[in-house]
Amino acid sequence: MAFEFLSLAVCVGFVLLALFVLALFYIVSIFNGLISLRNNIDKAWANIDVLLKQRTDLIPNLVETVKGYMKYEKATLENITRLRTSMMNASTPAEKAKASDAISAGLKSIFAVAEGYPDLKASANFLELQKQLAAIENQIADRREFYNDSVVLYNTRIKSMPDMIFASILGMKDKEYFKASEDEKKAVKVKMDSGKAATDGGINVSEAAKKKPWAKKITKKRRSKSK
Predict the structure, then answer these.
(1) In terms of residue numbers, what domain contains 64?
(2) How many domains in the chain?
(3) How confident is the model at residue 183, as a pLDDT?
(4) Structural element, H or E, at residue 10
């Protein structure tokens, strides 16, 4: 009888030990999974931040290259310089996303206006800067998507049971997306009307339309089409 009781106790002990090991393994796997997701977000953000800095560093070179050709585009160049400052002062992903979208709009405006300056388009420095900036824009778009997908996965995990229990214990909170809100997106539209640019992304190119021969040709074409 005593032997049977001892055997039963040993079996129960093994079962409890096995359950404890399984529970410990499960807890460790959840912990490691959450840490891995958080590290992926940090890594993805670091990659984006490097690209944002590279683009920011190229903007002064672009301004110096084009200002000798774009004599009537002072507002455009001043605006892209101001946007660069906004990017440097941004701290959160949302703030940097807003500034990044504005810079993208500003660069598109500069490259669009550059179409009316054949000498500028033939400049080797300008073409190289345009190529580098276009490549960086594409990389930012790709890494932005990967970062936001990682944030979605992480934020979903820390709000799901039982992960949310461990996330709460570890002090894990929602990560911020790298995107501007709908209201902020409205502030990065490129403005083609007269007056100074009033928003982060507003680029005033009206002076070029008034003073450049290429702009007059475009106006004539539009008028003929409307007729």
Answers:
(1) 2-219
(2) 1
(3) 52
(4) helix 2-66
> Do 58 and 132 form a contact (C-beta atoms < 8 A)?
yes
| CATH (domain of 178) | 1.20.1440.20
d(Cα 175, Cα 147) in Å, to the nearest integer?
10
Instruction: Give the tens place of pLDDT for each residue, 4-33.
Output: 666 767 787 788 888 888 888 888 888 888
Angle at 38 between CA 35 and CA 39, to 5 degrees: 85
C-alpha 215 chain-centroid distance: 33
* Residue 90 is assigned to a structural domain of this protein: yes
| DSSP letter assigned to residue 204 | -
Q: Tens of pLDDT along 85-128? A: 999 999 999 999 999 999 999 999 999 988 888 998 889 999 99
* CA–centroid distance for 57 within its chain: 16
Instruction: State mean pLDDT over 52-77.
Output: 89
How many C-alpha atoms does 58 have within 13 Å on its Cβ side? 22
Contacts of 172 (CB under 8 A, 6+ apart): 34, 38, 158
160 CB-contact burial (10 Å; exposed 0-12 / middle 13-18 / buried 19+) = exposed
Closest by CA position to 59, among listed 120, 129, 127, 11: 129
